[in-house]
């Protein structure tokens, strides 16, 4: 679940931004929890009490503590660097002041829905797979690999072959069972024996896919329609 905070003393803006986020996350069929704050003090109070967020939309000019100072408190006092701060501002002159807070992006008022979708899409591209692992075993050895490092998987007899840029791992598992796991949302199945990581698709043709290491994989005739549908959906996320 994506956890989002909106901190802005303009209640109408909070409502508008929340609606855009909820609509987009419903479109891509993913869960989101959005919390709205109308002051930086309230946001910091909750974060000091261990309330965590993935993305924080933070207005710069608010009554009371400014968005700049909220960002400083998040980074320095709370020592939190994983929450990605997106500043809401129409003043480019703030850019140098904001640099120390390591902002993920900027949004100008009035808010443009496509800009919000692009920022969430970019966040997901960079961070969705950062801490997601696939755990597997072969014999008595149990290993795990970051999903973001898997190029594709394929089945050979009773084994699942896990391909990365540097090596190939293997485990006793059926591809059908792999595709029932939660991590399967990061993959598109192109054949009864192959599934490709969405992040590593560098080009697509109706009958083949090229992955980031240059390999070309054939899309089975029976899977071409569903591959095309999934890739079109991913393109518009």
**Low-confidence runs (pLDDT<50, min 5 residues)?**
none
Largest sheet: 5 strands, parallel
What distance separates the N and C termini? Answer: 16 Å
Overall average residue pLDDT:
87
Q: Which geometry do the CA atoms define?
A: elongated
Count of all domains: 2
Please, could you describe this protein's structure?
The chain has 237 residues and is of the alpha/beta class. It has two domains: 2-127, Response regulator (Rossmann fold); 133-235, LytTr DNA-binding domain (OB fold (Dihydrolipoamide Acetyltransferase, E2P)), CATH 2.40.50.1020. The protein contains seven helices and 15 strands. The strands form four sheets. The protein has a five-stranded parallel sheet with strand order 2-1-3-4-5, with helices on both faces. Helix 4 links the parallel strand 4 and strand 5. The chain is elongated and about 65 Å long. The mean pLDDT is 87.
